[in-house]
Amino acid sequence: MDVLAKPDATTRSADRVLGLLRVVCEHDGVKLAEAAKAMGLSPSTALRLLRTLEANGFATKRQDGLYRPGYRMVQLGVEALSHESLVATARPALAALVADTGESAYLSVAAGNGDGLYLAIEEGTHAVRHVNWVGRTFPLADSAAGAVLLGHVPAGTYTAVANAVESDVTAVAAPVLAGPRVVAALSIVAPSYRTDDRAAARLGDLVSARAAALFATA
């Protein structure tokens, strides 16, 4: 076997795609020309490969023309992220919310393409409860966690939304911040029949307090 043999076409294509993905992930937005130059590719080849990444959710082209990591990159990182400081810091708060309410508690982050991503859960203790959606995406628009991640909910407050991501389900969410930036949403997800206005207000006070504590220690 010739160990010095040149890589075949399939290997070269894979190297180019992975190289472009690395360039996209290492920059806070990269132009087509810059990505092509970094990889030594023609703009037409780089565009073709970037469109493939975009079609599969690994890259996204924003309105400013810059390529950034897509939501699939976030999903693939869920297992690794479960050991990172954000999730580790949130675990006690999630457990405390379940202990206080019996409802399922989630930590979620923005995932790109107008979606959020459920990053961690502490499952509720009620017989009827929201089950594990970790790794699944949800639309930011019209959802409680989405309003938080879009910056529409001030620190120390909460929002409650019913029948958004799922029918007959109410979510109550509050922002987790690092400095001035919203880095995650802490939320309680419960059946709507258990979550009238009074119950939602109680859940909101609890989740906003826990989120504020996370902000203070983040």
TrEMBL record:
Q: Which InterPro entries match?
A: GAF-like_dom_sf (IPR029016), HTH_MetabolicPath_Reg (IPR050707), Tscrpt_reg_IclR_C (IPR014757), Tscrpt_reg_IclR_N (IPR005471), WH-like_DNA-bd_sf (IPR036388), WH_DNA-bd_sf (IPR036390)
Which Pfam families would you find in this protein's record?
A: HTH_IclR, IclR_C
Domain of life of the source: Bacteria
The answer, when asked if Repressor is one of the entry's keywords, is no
Q: What is this protein called?
A: IclR family transcriptional regulator
Q: What species is this protein from?
A: Arthrobacter halodurans
Q: Which residues form the HTH iclR-type domain?
A: 11-71
TM spans (from-to): none
Annotated keywords? DNA-binding, Transcription, Transcription regulation
Q: Which residues form the IclR-ED domain?
A: 72-218
- Is Transferase a UniProt keyword of this protein? no
- PANTHER family associated with the record: HELIX-TURN-HELIX TRANSCRIPTIONAL REGULATOR, ICLR FAMILY (PTHR30136), HTH-TYPE TRANSCRIPTIONAL REGULATOR RV1719 (PTHR30136:SF35)
